[in-house]
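User: Fold this; tokens only.

Assistant: Input:
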Amino acid sequence: MTNGEMPLGPEIDPRPAPRPQHAVLAGHYCTLRPLDVARDAASLYTGTHGAGRERLWAYLFSGPFASEREFTEWLVGRAASDDPLFFAIDVGGEAVGWSSLMRITPEHRVIEVGNILYTPELQRTRAATEAMYLLARHVFDTLGYRRYEWKCNALNAASRAAALRLGFAFEGIFRNHMIVKGRSRDTAWFAMTDADWPTRKAAFERWLDPANFDAAGRQRVGLAAARG
């Protein structure tokens, strides 16, 4: 830098990334596909409502719903949306959760994963981890984004732990960031970049390999350990 020049960031390709579209992302343990209200409403309502399942909605912007009809009406809007762009998480032909790509900013090649809900049937399974791998791989390898974000209520300890386990880096707390369901929300920010992705991808693939699990289904190497 010569005398008097201002420091600037490195030059990069300024072309925008493509916007994500509805797609099918197939893995070994699950498939991500567009929400299909006629096919998915009943199973998703059953999986997310009932005794003890109201906690699944505690940190989400909507729900739980008073009836299957109200839930189905809400699901219609989610299926039609392109930002957030929702994916059903399908295991064995049945939707057992959902996630979305959101706050899509193609001109900066930045995108966020959010609106994640895993039913108890999906939680703590190989499919649960693979769903996040499939989305990240789509974002980085197929669409060419450079920054992949994860944000959650700062009080949501499970989501914060999940972000770290999946390889997102904690970037800080945005105080008084939102009002959600009549309560103030501080938001914890996490992100993964295209420079991080090769290491994260290799760890995901090592963890998801069937050889990483014993005959009882127990992992031999944890996901964080697989990153080295």
